[in-house]
């Protein structure tokens, strides 16, 4: 396991900045839903349908990479907990 070089906030800021600056301009429509593994130190990244594959390919090139994981088209790579469908959520509002 790699030792963290940054605070959680700085780690997230760097990952999102690299995603916006370096990754987003390279994305195509067919990348929707794919995972992006980003080394927050070098800015190198890998894209794959499988998060593990993207991460392992990046680690193969950048041993010890500090990896920020994103999913194209989503605000986060993963969600925790249940999520209501939008129509159901709207009916629950006062």
How many E-type strands? 3
Judged by helices, strands and strand pairing, the structural class is alpha+beta
Order of strands in the sheet with the most strands?
2-1-3
**Cα shape:** globular
Largest sheet features: 3 strands, antiparallel
**Percent range for helical residues?**
25-40%
CA radius of gyration = 15 Å
Mean pLDDT: 84
| % residues in beta strands | 5-15%
Secondary-structure element order, as H and E? HEEHEH
**What is the end-to-end distance?**
47 Å
Estimate nothing, just give the exact number of structural domains: 1
Number of helices: 3
Low-confidence stretches: 86-94
Short description:
This protein has one domain. 35% of the residues lie in helices and 15% in strands. The chain is built from three helices and three strands, in the order αββαβα.
Write up this protein.
With 94 residues, this protein is of the alpha+beta class. It has one domain. 35% of the residues lie in helices and 15% in strands. Strand 1 and strand 2 form a beta hairpin. The radius of gyration is 15 Å and the shape is globular.
Ordered list of secondary-structure elements with their pairings:
Blueprint: H1 8-23, E1 35-39, E2 45-48, H2 51-61, E3 67-71, H3 86-91
Antiparallel strand pairs: 1-2, 1-3
């Amino acid at each position: 396991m790699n030792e963290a070089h940054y605070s959680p906030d700085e780690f997230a800021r760097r990952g999102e900045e690299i995603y916006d600056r370096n990754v987003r301009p390279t994305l195509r429509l067919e990348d929707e839903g794919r995972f992006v593994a980003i080394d927050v130190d070098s800015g190198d990244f890998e894209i794959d349908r499988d998060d593990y594959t993207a991460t392992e390919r990046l680690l193969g090139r950048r041993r010890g990479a500090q990896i920020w994981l994103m999913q194209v088209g989503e605000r986060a790579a993963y969600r925790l907990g249940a999520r209501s469908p939008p129509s159901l959520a709207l009916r629950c509002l006062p």
